[in-house]
Amino acid sequence: MKLSIVIVNYNVEYFLEQCLYSVRRALQDIEGEVFVIDNNSVDGSLKMLAQKFPEVKIIANKENVGFSRANNQAIRISTGEYVLLLNPDTVVEDDTFSKCINFMDSHPDAGGLGVKMVDGKGNFLPESKRGLPTPAAAFYKMFGLAKLFPHSKRFAHYYMGHLSNDETNECEILAGAYMLMRRETLDKVGLLDETFFMYGEDIDLSYRITLGGYKNYYFPETRIIHYKGESTKKTSVNYVFVFYRAMEIFAKKHFGKKWASSFSFLINMAIYFKAFLALVSQFFHKAAVPFLDAVLGYGGLATISYFWGHARIYEVGTYPPILFAAVLPVYILIWLACVYFSGGYDKPYNIGKSLFGVAIGSAVVLVLYALLPESMRFSRALILFGMLWLAVVMSVIRSVGILLGNDSFQSRKTVKKRFLVIGSPEETQRVETLLDSTSIKPDFVGLVYSETQGEAPEGFIGNMTQVPDIIQIYKITEVIFCSKDVPHQVIIDKMVDWHDFNVDYKIAPEDSLSIIGSNSINTRGDLYTVDIKAIDTTSNRRNKRLFDVLVSFFSILFWLPLALMVKKPWQFLKNAVKVLFGRRTWVGYCPQADDSQKLPKIRMGIFNPASHLEENGTADATFYNQLNLLYARDYTVWKDAEIFFKSLR
Questions:
Q1: Percent of the residues in the chain that have a pLDDT greater than 90, as a whole number
Q2: From start to end of 299-443, where are the E strands?
Q3: How far apart are CA 334 and CA 304, in angstroms?
Q4: Is the distance from CB of 275 to CB of 238 less than 8 angstroms?
Q5: What is the reported pTM?
């Protein structure tokens, strides 16, 4: 056996599927075996493997045993001359394995090999080649000097920035996303250290390879796509602690006591510094706009109230402290809550939704004002001032965001996606149908013939050589490659060649219901499948819960008249209480649905899309599955309302 490929999977079914399709193609002329170790995934990965990749050897763990231990499970029973550790969120070129094996065969001093990695837009990933994280190298990276001097042998040693990205060179550390090793090397230096649960194990093993008298090489003559990249979770506090604790384990293991204690001190400084930055980043990412709305809103309204009271209401002084301490904060909270439920805080932030929320909030505040005791009713004018001031504040904040080009803001409706699908007539038609089956609602889908010569078939815009012009003329936003027709080398070549057009790229694997890509190294990756459902969006989940709460509240409040309408009034009251406290939802999926259908999880429903239909209880499972799919994919809160009122009796 020439090559053993080891892939650890944890809840990334569609990425794994695409990875294995590329692996299968790259192994065509190589005697090899593929292991997938599943760390107790719940996303259907094992079923997909059994159906589509019967040649893969599966190790199904009953718990998440970590990256190192899972890899070792397969390495111990593998038989290949070479062992490759491969991440499931990667795509290899068709000749990646053959090129790498040829290099290793001709370089007996090579113990390990890494390749050139690019992200989902074709950008080079610096973690393709790394240096040993000595205290100095770690310090320069942690505190930004590596970014300031990206090509310095001293300051950029962590990513070996002084070495060319396009030339084969010795390197100190290999990336665990693609780590090819000689069997005899592993026999000599040992397997992955299971002390490392996640992160750091590739650094430890790479270092032990060099200590064992072998060399590690960076080999850029073949490339892989690595969707997640090293930066995936750098804004996560958990990532910061796990990653830097792994570095501390490495330091204690390989450096002397003096260096280890110094490194531990440096790492602990970095942990809290990075954790603080991560918390600040998360705050600004999630709560900066609501925070600004609240602070500026209250500050402005309090100032207006002070001067209004001083000038128009009281001859001496202004409103009493309770207005500023209690009443105005409550008003602001009501306004902000209404903006939230109106979708004003959904990204990208929309001025229209925010202003609508302010208007609804003003109506709620006026109703509350009328219910307050006389001593707490200070002035309706303050409500008017508050509405106008908040409208101005929110408009200005969002307009500034738009002018600064921040992706979290928008001035009009979200730009609709315009796709270009490249492949054969059969595959492009399949992908076009798949796009129509999702909730994307594409504005345009153009087809391009995957051949570079000859006339394109009827219905196609052009062939592969004409894509740059097509992107500009048709204002394409995303390019989808059909991997059955376009080799992965060509896909990566084109991603790099067309980089200046600033479009996003995705790959549609053969015989798959998924289209996978990544718009940014900082995202897990974008996934288009028939499983993308409108019901799973943040706004719709919020609206569904709001509908449940309001309907339950009014159902309990007006239970006596409703008791004359419903068949089982006491059961209806009981259900209303369950829904109010979040144990059930008013509208859920049909219970006859096939469990294999991968729909977003929602609470069990009192009613379902078939409750009011004559076929309820008599139709087959296919009918109910289709109803569930349509309900989840095209969900709106009005659909819940329609089903509820039709099913009430």
A1: 43
A2: 349-350, 409-410, 418-423
A3: 19
A4: no
A5: 0.70
